[in-house]
Amino acid sequence: MSRWLPFPLLSAGLLTMWLLLNQTVAVGHILLGAALALCIAWGTRAVQPSKTRLRRLGAIIRLFFVVLGDIIRSNAAVTWIILRPGQRRGTSSFVDIPLELRNPYGLAVLACIITSTPGTLWAGFDSATGVVTVHILDLIDENAWFDIIKGRYERLLLEIFE
Amino acid sequence: MTFAAELPAWAALLTAALVLLGAGLAFTGSLGLLRFSSFYERVHAPTLATTLGAGCVLIASMIFFSVLQTRPVVHEILIAIFLALTTPVTLMLLVRAALFRDRVEGRTYDEAKTRALPTVKNAPGPGRLAPIQAEPNELPPTRHPDNGDEHDYR
Amino acid sequence: MTANVLLGSLTIAQVLVALAMAGATFRMLRGPRAQDRVLGLDTLYVNAILLLLIFGIRSGSTVYFEAALVIAVLGFVATAALAKFLMRGEVIE
């Protein structure tokens, strides 16, 4: 398994990408895409990425929908901030949040979630202390952001990665 | 433009609504890019276009072509995945570069002078050797030969 | 009737995205600092992708999809390289 298929998720993703690009499910393309996916996965072994295990499919799906909902909500919030005339209520500021998550893949996913949600930005992470710096566009209550990032995202990510 | 008439009404209206919503979000994001007063606020604006804006237009395109060609057309999902993966990376790189540059230039507050910038790892703090110690306009002239005397590329 | 609604909203959407591109171009040309210009470029290419997709819907052809994908790939590499340049003063170390 690990010899012939070192990264099953990566290979499956590459095969799907190939089939989507060619817009077909013909046998020839599946074979060609599978060969490509295997070759690239073998090539990736040279980079020696650290292995991690994804657990709890339910948590992954829940995280996806939580993030989707948050993206839609914060899109509306930022649209309102931009279009609203006059001065804003909150200020934009940097906030330091201590994390328990240490898995590099988990941190990468958290960084992508925070940055792709409008209104929040991942501005840096100190791996020695585990403190993440987040820039928040419309800061009113610092504790609310603690709850969102630690309670909503980090808890699910800890379930998935650790 | 005959194909638009072949579309059933629900698909046409749904496509129209989603495209309008996406374009409106892209426009709002660009407006924010113009309206906000400091860089760290402006970085938030384009995420409107890259998340929900692009998402709406891509879903509209998926619905439109699936109905038009009477088969599932989902390859737009590739652009969605690609944008979802790359935009956070570019924005994080940009913010870190901006923090680094502000730090190198000795700014501890942002342009609007409202708040302190955080200390950032890899930034030249005390005891940490910086990759660039000089101000950008004191870089050796060999680095930017095309710019003549204009080394201050901000 | 619905065809006209679709065409009209596609036109409005194209105008909106074009205005968004104009705003991004303004930010790119005016700065005030290098990171603002790179941010403007980033916004510009994302809006270009959206404009191409809307063109695709308008013309009913999937050719525009490939162009949009290429812009997405190249835009990412360009912005990443420019951000790296701002950080270090050179791209390849």
Describe this structure in words.
The complex is a heterotrimer of chains A (162), B (154) and C (93). Chain A is α+β, with helices and mostly antiparallel strands. In chain A, a hairpin with a 4-residue loop joins strand 2 (120-126) and strand 3. Chain A is built from five helices and three strands. Chain A has helices at residues 8-22, 27-45, 57-83, 104-116, 142-161; strands spanning 91-98, 120-126, 131-139. In chain A, 58% of the residues lie in helices and 15% in strands. Chain A is globular and about 60 Å long. Chain B has one domain (9-123). Helix content of chain B is 57%, strand content 0%. Chain B contains five helices and no strands. In chain B, helix 2 (9-35) packs antiparallel against helix 4 (46-69) and helix 4 (46-69) packs antiparallel against helix 5 (76-104). Chain C has 93 residues and is mainly alpha-helical. Chain C has helices spanning 2-30, 34-59, 63-88. In chain C, helix 1 (2-30) packs antiparallel against helix 2 and helix 2 (34-59) packs antiparallel against helix 3 (63-88). The model of chain C has no long low-confidence stretch (mean pLDDT 87).
Oligomer status: heterotrimer
CATH architecture of chain C: Orthogonal Bundle
Q: Which structural class do the helices and strands of chain A define? A: alpha+beta
Average pLDDT level of chain C: 87
What is the CATH third-level topology name of chain C?
Helix Hairpins
Rg of chain A, rounded, reads 20 Å
**Uncertain stretches of chain A:** none
CATH class of chain C: Mainly Alpha
The tally of structural domains of chain A comes to: 2
Profile the largest sheet of chain A.
Answer: 3 strands, antiparallel
**Total number of strands of chain C:** 0
Low-confidence parts of chain C: none
Residues in β-strands, percent of chain C: under 5%
What percent of the residues of chain C sit in helical stretches (DSSP H or I)? over 70%
Distance between the termini of chain C: 60 Å
Largest contact between protein chains? B-C, 66 and 57 residues
How many separate structural domains of chain C? 1
Looking at the structure, what is the overall shape of chain C? elongated
Q: How many helices of chain C in DSSP terms?
A: 3
Shape of chain A: globular
Strand order of the largest sheet of chain A: 1-3-2
